[in-house]
Amino acid sequence: MKTSMLVASAMAAAIALPAIAFAGPAAAPSYTHEKCYGVAAKNMNDCQAGSHSCAGESAKANDGQSWIYVPTGTCQKIQGGSVTPKGA
Prior knowledge:
3 strands, alpha+beta
């Protein structure tokens, strides 16, 4: 039992390692873009300006400190969108 648990733990760690190693902001898209704050769904942000440091870590939807990449000129057209971080 202990051996199978050890093997399972080792496999889980090996699978998770690449995700941990590359945690951080999302890669910049190939299109002309801007950061749009306050419009990302929970856990769907590209990065942040405040309480967390990696993509996919926003604790709530429409967090004014979290942003997503959108095509340039689009953010101001989205309800609640801002090209600058909103209050904490």
